[in-house]
Amino acid sequence: MEGNQFTNFWQGVPQGPPDPILGVTDAFKKDTAPNKVNLGVGAYRDENGKPYVLESVLKAEDILHQKRLDKEYLPITGANDFITLASELAYGKDSKPLKEGRVAVAQSISGTGALRIATGFLSQYYNGPKVLYLPDPTWGNHVPLAEGVGLKVQRYRYFDKKTVGLDFAGMKEDIKNAEDGSIILLHACAQNPTGIDPTQEQWKELSELVKSKKHLPLFDMAYQGFASGDIIKDAFAARYFVEQGHQIILCQSFAKNLGLYAERAGTFSMVTSSPEEKERVLSQIKRVIRPLYSSPPVHGAQLVATILGNPDLYEQWLSEVKKMADRIISMREKLYNLLIELKTPGEWGHIKSQIGMFSFTGISPEQVQALADHAHIYMTKDGRISMAGLNEHNIQYFAESLSKAVKGELGTKSSL
Ligand code: LMR
User: Fold this and answer.
1) Which entry of 59, 197, 256, 317 is annotated as an active-site residue?
2) Which residues of the chain register pLDDT less than 70?
3) Do 225 and 282 share a domain, yes or no?
4) Domain range holding 235?
5) Which pTM was predicted?
6) Is residue 342 domain-shared with residue 237, that is, in the same domain?
């Protein structure tokens, strides 16, 4: 009898932990409380807390529908019109390396996919130390994206707990002390999770420092337009580095600024020193992509290309990006005022000064847990909140609950 039994192959597979960010959405979905609030995942919500499809995207959908396009495979590196327009958006139409035809660009499965192409390529072809320096803290997914392909992860100081601001001196010191030629990941704007960016002057200093150390800058650009509402201002750091001659790698996502989360549209790009080198690099990029997913999906790229390639839709999109950014900024103002009105212990100026999708509240993991358990408010364990999850209907409730959590009053009888 025993010999006839099927082998159980998976007995040794341990239960994995929930994803630190997407797992918060799962917990939120399971909660049946009517007043629940999800401030976990960085996804824009309108003033009624609903996912938002941009008008420009809806119009692009109509245009595409009329065209009755086919569903043929895209080339391994994606749709040509898309990658041209997307890289012009990131680098600027007048970008020298773009004009000289020495930027290797490939469509990617949004920002994560771009980073995976980058780490995959670097692990095989980078001649310098295979060490990726990440800001502390950073987006959680950066770590497995590097370690999964054998790159070593190191940290540089970024967040100063005391000032709830940028630890610029610590950041510079760590970048300076890194072995020459290390790979330095920089958030192009709207740093995730802190919402704190270097100033333009600080970026200039960083460019000098990175150059003097012969480091390789890798920009993660997931929020162009979302930080200030202005896509050009938000591209400052990456464009400045390129102007200064850095051969940057850039990972671009259209999830947030076009609201195309599930379409997974983005690009990987790399400035090289000549068109000939670009071709060699691209030939290897193709070999990274092909066994991962063969070629990218078409629809999101078509939407982006339709909007970026049509002057009216482009203008409309710019105003929609600004509208989203402005709504978030107004929520920051309101939350700050409420926390002060409620006499919440601590200094809350950072809620207003931080930019982009997130605010790093500075509350403890215990307070985060208390908010979930007793107020049905969900956020990542590090106290990051997605400001886009706040609106006129829930901000008072959130501010009161946060204030109680900070005062240690949540979970007690009188709390809610
Ligand atoms: C986030 O940080 O919440 C977003 O970038 C979504 C994600 O994939 O983690």
Assistant:
1) 256
2) 1-3, 412-416
3) yes
4) 73-309
5) 0.95
6) no
